[in-house]
Design goal:
The protein has helices at about 25-35, 75-90, and strands at about 5-15, 20, 20-25, 40-45, 45-50, 55, 70-75, 95-105. The protein is α+β, with helices and mostly antiparallel strands. The chain has a single domain (about 5-105), classed as Alpha-Beta Plaits (2-Layer Sandwich).
Length: about 110
């Protein structure tokens, strides 16, 4: 199999983040699905920190919606370029990482 190049984007969110009064990570997943992005997942972290703040853990009695949610998606460069502006609008001031990756298995069909 020859190497297939793709782009992986990771967004670092908080569980309390919202878009139009709904959970941001779910609204982003719904948007990516509607836009036919190849693969996306949101992972709710059990511990972590964002923006140089203190470490939040699921062991705290009330984490107060501060636990990280990591949303990652993979697609072609062209497709990422098309959906990324909306995601930036939905999550201003959030960390977004974009990297070129090689698919070791599978394809983007």
């Amino acid at each position: 199999m020859s190497a297939i190049m793709a782009v992986q984007v990771t967004l670092y969110l908080k569980e309390a983040d919202q878009w139009q009064h709904l959970p941001l990570h779910m609204e982003m997943l719904n948007y990516l699905r509607k836009e036919n992005v190849y693969a996306a997942v949101a992972v709710h972290a059990v511990a972590g920190f964002l923006g140089r703040h203190r470490v939040e853990t699921a062991h705290l009695v009330d984490a107060g919606g501060k636990l990280p949610v990591i949303l990652t998606f993979v697609d072609t460069d062209e497709h990422v370029n098309r959906v990324l502006p909306k995601l930036k609008e939905m999550a201003p001031h959030h960390l977004i990482v974009r990297e070129n990756v090689v698919l070791e298995q599978g394809n983007l069909d």
